Structure formats: structure tokens, C-alpha cells
Amino acid sequence: MSTKVRLGIIGLGQQGGAYAKFITDGLVPNMVIGAITDTDPAKRQLAAETYPGVAVYDDYVAMLDSGDVDAVVTCVPHYQHPEIGIAALGRNIHALVEKPAGVYTKQVRELNEFAASKPELSFAIMFNQRNNPLYQRLKEIVDAGEIGSILRTNWIITTWWRPQGYYNSSEWRATWGGEGGGVLVNQAPHQLDLWQWICGVPKSVFAKVSYGFRRDIAVEDEVTAVVDYGNGATGTFVTATHDMVGTDRFEILGDAGKIVVEGSRTATVTRLKQKERDISQNMGMDDVRRLFMGQLNMDDYLTTETVEFDSVWGGQHAGVLQNFAANILDGTPLLAPGSDGINGVRLANAIHLSSWKGAEVGLDFDEDEFLALLNEHIRGEGRYPERA
Q1: By percentage, how much of the chain surpasses pLDDT 90?
Q2: Which CATH superfamily is domain 131-309+344-381 in?
Q3: Structure pTM?
Q4: Distance between CA 149 and CA 143 in Å, rounded?
Q5: Residue 100, preceding peptide bond in cis (omega within 30° of 0)
Q6: Distance CA 118, CA 297 (A)
Q7: Burial label, 234 (beta-carbon count in 10 A; 0-12, 13-18, 19+)
Q8: What distance in Å separates the CA atoms of residue 300 and residue 287, rounded to the nearest whole number?
Q9: Domain extents for the chain?
Q10: How many CA atoms, within 13 angstroms, populate the side-chain half-sphere of residue 141?
Q11: Tens digit of pLDDT for each residue in 218-230?
Q12: At 166, which helix (H) or strand (E)?
């Protein structure tokens, strides 16, 4: 068997171009570029000049049928990820879909079900932040119960400042019919994934969402969502594209500790020596007096650790590509199975649906109702076909 996977890159934009460079620079030693597809003649010419000897196509189906590729990555608008994934898997070609897996759960579920019928093929999603050693370590800490049962989670992620010119750069950008939404489907899918990957999938959500709040766009540029995990635990998620200063702060409070992450770089992990409620119950009045006088020695009750990792730009993406190829070649477990992609799409859909209805929405919402309301927004734009 070959020791290198021939990857077909569908879409030579910013992401596709970056992946091609990672491969040719040797950052993905078990992968080569098998072919490149782009509908833009200028991108095809660029591909031919930059990667001599690599086949270039104007149609991804022709590339899939060419025999030039063992696997593909879908660097195309979000709506197309499921259809291309299904087309590849249907031809026994491994598929790595970009985030988000799609725009609405109905199409992503179809992709997942089709992939499940092809268990011999590798199906992954580009959740490169799962390759971030900081978040891997935090998941280990939470999964091991080191901070106890989760009581509350909060993520403020507003480091996505985008000026109006960004939205004006492409006709499809920030439209319901072309992109499928705003900050939830473009900038924040990694955090929506990590939040659920580490803390669990919530049962319901209530959201206040502003559409075209500080930008001349139809889709959301400001989101505040409150989730209920179903056991008394709650969480909040705040994101926006109009905060020039920006905040990235992720907190996980457990009944035996707490994690605070700043800037997705440094985490402070506090572990209580007993569960918080036991400390509370066992504290005598002398200790309470010392607490109010600022004389309580907190080292008697907890320990604090700082967790920090340097992450080289591009290393996480290249690592996902390398892991995907390793899964194809020798069965190495996937960092991000493609089937996990539905979780972030489902939560984004539920946030939109809650804001449209002005009500709390379960994560088991009616997918047809969501799609009908999405199509209402697409019809209102009058520029794109409705979705089925």
C-alpha cells in the first residue's frame, strides 16, 4: 500500500491554498497533492503555475472520477460541504470536510448517515482546534473529574472584529442564501465545537441575536446564548464581529474546581481539596470570620496550576491533515471524526431558531421548522435558491 495519501483540494482560496502549501512544505509527510479543483480560471492558472505536475480541474466531479485522488478536502462555501462529501464517499474516496459541516442539520445528518454506510472510508472534519494541546489537556482534566461535576460554563469570544469592507469583499458573504449565516457559521464554529467537546452537549438554548446590528449585513453579528445542560448546570456563549478590542475568555466551573482560559493560550486550573459544598458545610464560625477579614489561608482549600502551550501557526491544521492521512493508511484514530460536525451546526441552528421564535429551544428541535424559516430568510434576499 502507498505510504502517502493523494489529496484532492477542492477550492484554492485562502484555506485550500494554505493546505497546499503545508503539503509542499513538508508539514504533512504522509500526504501529497493529487489534484486541485477550482471554478475560477485565475485560480486554476495559479494552481498550474504554483504546483507543476499536479492535475487541475474546473469541476470536482471530474476530479473525483479521474483516479488522481485518494481523498479530498472541501474548501468551498458551507452549503456545499455535505454534497461534496457524499459525492466523494460514494466513489470510495475519503472525505475531510471544512468547518462547519454544513449550514443546517438536515443536510449534515444526510452526510453522516451516508458516511456511516461506508465505514471502511475515512470521514473527518477540520476541527483543528482539537489539535491544540491546551484544549486537549483541558478536556483530559474535565473528563478525569479533576474539577468535579460541571456547574456553569461561559465563553466570551469577541476577537472576530471584521470591518464592513470584509463583508463587501464577496457577494455571497454574510448572506442567508450564500453563506447561511454570520458569526455563528463563519467565525465561531471552532468554539461551538470545543465548548461541547469539553463540556458536553446542552439540552436547550435561549438566545438573543442581533442581525445587522453594527454592520450593513442581513445575518447575525452579535450573539448572546444561554444553554441548559438539563441537570441544573447552565452556560453562556457570547460572540460578535464589531468589538475592536475583543475578548477570548472561557470559564468552566465545577463543584470541585475551576478552569479559566485567557486568549486561548493560558489556562488557570484550580482544584479544590474537597468538593465546594463539603468545604461550605464543614467551615466553622472562626473560619467564616477569618474569611470576612481576608485572613483565610486559601492554600488550605485549593491548589492552582497554570497550563500554557505554544502553538505554531499552521501546525494544528497540518496536524489534522496528517492525522486524516494516518487514519487512511493505518487506522490511527481520528482527532475529529466527521460525524461530530453536526454538533456545532445543531447548536448554531438552535440559537438562530430561538432568536427567530423568541423562545427557548431544545437541541432536539424540528429540523423542518428550522429549514422553513431559513428559506424564508433566503426568499427575503431574493438572490439565491431555497434549500431542500
Answers
A1: 97
A2: Dihydrodipicolinate Reductase; domain 2 (3.30.360.10)
A3: 0.95
A4: 10
A5: yes
A6: 58
A7: middle
A8: 11
A9: 5-130+314-337, 131-309+344-381
A10: 24
A11: 999 999 999 999 9
A12: helix 164-168
Cell of 145: 473529574
CA distance readout (Å), 128 to 270, 315, 317, 322: 27, 9, 5, 11
User: In this structure, is the dihedral angle defined by the CA atoms of residues 338, 328, 22 and 313, taken in order, positive or negative?
Assistant: positive
Q: Do domains 5-130+314-337 and 131-309+344-381 have the same CATH topology?
A: no
Written as one letter, the residue type at 295 is Q
Q: What is the dihedral of CA 230, 189, 346, 97, to 10 degrees?
A: -140
Query: HSE on the CB side for 116, CA within 13 Å?
Result: 8
Domain 5-130+314-337 part of CATH 1.10.3720.10? no
* Residue 103, C-alpha cell as written in the block: 449550514
State the Cα–Cα distance between residues 197 and 95, nearest whole angstrom: 21
pLDDT band at 312 (very low <50, low <70, confident <90, very high): low
Please check whether residue 131 is in contact with residue 316, taking contact to mean a CB–CB distance below 8 angstroms: yes
